[in-house]
Amino acid sequence: MASRKQLIVNADDFGQSSGVNGGVIEAHESGIVTSASLMVRWPAAAEAAADSRKTPKLSLGLHVDLGEWRYRDGAWTALYEVVPLDDANIVKEEVTRQLATFHDLVGKRPTHMDSHQHVHLREPARSVLREVARFLDIPLRHFNPGVRYCGNFYGQTAEGLPLPDAISADSLVKILRTLPFGLTELSCHPGRANDLDTMYRNERAQEVRVLCDPQVRAGLVSMEIELRSFRSGSGPRVNGIEIRDGKKTALGG
């Protein structure tokens, strides 16, 4: 694998709204998206899970959702917070709950894990998610040595200002050209409609267009970049929940 370039194109926020779901599926069926990360707390999560059953080549991971923050007036403020992020036990309980919900919706364990707005880069969520991923034997974004992460395909600055040139077809082709040998995950945020109260909203439809652009597909071919998706590993349990062959069993201890 190290002697060639392989790319996973992962759509975050799957399940957050019907518009996001439609954009993810379009970018998979007509574009280059190969994987998606499911936000299980949202009303459209069941719809997303149903959509994924119709697209079996789309690997499905868990997008752990502990909150969302937006940048306003020179500071980050909470749009919503699911649990206090400074309490490791409460964070662990919430991650376990979301993992169980994922299994209820999808019928199997996730192929990979990441988190909304990369909240797992900070403690204690960092240690909690690393423990979960280790038990499940699945890749955790930023913490798997076999999968490099690239977040350059994003239409805003770090402070939330519009950056439309970053999600153009030309920009994506340039990103592809700079990929190193080995396996890389490229994240994206496609969506069809502006049906979200979220920091990243208007850019989603443009992402769909670019991810489905023939120029991008042609670039992959000319650069001999192989598209692939996440694959589930082996790992029987996490925090008292056993996940095996489509069944969930509570364990003692």
Write the layout of secondary structure elements.
Blueprint: E1 5-14, H1 18-29, E2 35-38, H2 45-54, E3 59-64, E4 67-72, E5 75-81, H3 88-106, E6 113-115, H4 125-136, E7 148-150, H5 169-177, E8 182-188, H6 203-211, H7 214-222, E9 225-227, E10 237-238, E11 241-244, E12 247-250
Parallel strand pairs: 1-2, 1-8, 1-9, 2-3, 3-6, 7-8
Antiparallel strand pairs: 4-5, 10-11, 11-12
Quick recap:
32% of the residues lie in helices and 23% in strands. With 253 residues, it is an alpha/beta fold.
The radius of gyration over CA amounts to 17 Å
- What is the distance, rounded to the nearest whole angstrom, between the alpha carbons of the first and last residues? 40 Å
Largest sheet data: 7 strands, parallel
What proportion of the residues is helical, as a percent range? Answer: 25-40%
Total strands: 12
Beta-strand residue fraction: 15-25%
Q: What's the number of structural domains?
A: 1
What sequence of helices (H) and strands (E) makes up the elements?
A: EHEHEEEHEHEHEHHEEEE
Full CATH superfamily name: Glycoside hydrolase/deacetylase
What class, by secondary structure content?
A: alpha/beta
Ranges where pLDDT stays below 50 over 5 or more residues in a row are 232-253
Q: Using the 3D structure, state the CATH architecture.
A: Alpha-Beta Barrel
Q: Outline, from the CA principal axes?
A: globular
> What is the name of the CATH topology?
TIM Barrel
